[in-house]
Amino acid sequence: MKLTSFELDVMQYLWQQGEATSPQVHTNIAKNRDVTYSTVKTIIDRLEQKKVIKRHRVDGRTIYYQAVVTPKEVQKPMLKHMLQKLFAGNKKVLMNQLFEQEELSQEDIQYLENLIKRNKKS
């Protein structure tokens, strides 16, 4: 599953809200993008065609949309794609890039140490 940056913005909003109307999505997206309502509606229609959102309920003429996939279901294939395209599949280079770009807190380090320990047991 491949989603564009714009589609991911819509999905993030739906994951946060649980459900939303097209106007609500537009209002939220328009805070960070210069975009018309019709463009947002086109993205919503595209996401519906991709079967990652659905019409959850109708209240009069108002349609509420809801995500039907979890963030993890979207993240996993997109991360694999990014790993291949940007890092030629080399996980070490990806991790090195992350550690060089982001300062890790003690909590982050502890989490990573626990993750490594769990994976060593497998």
From TrEMBL:
Species assigned in the record: Marinicella pacifica
InterPro entries per record: BlaI_family (IPR005650), WH-like_DNA-bd_sf (IPR036388), WH_DNA-bd_sf (IPR036390)
Protein name: Transcriptional regulator
Annotated GO biological process: negative regulation of DNA-templated transcription
An example Gene Ontology molecular-function term: DNA binding
Gene3D superfamilies per the UniProt record, alphabetical: Penicillinase repressor domain, Winged helix-like DNA-binding domain superfamily/Winged helix DNA-binding domain
UniProtKB keywords: DNA-binding, Transcription, Transcription regulation
Family to which the UniProt record says this protein belongs: Belongs to the BlaI transcriptional regulatory family.
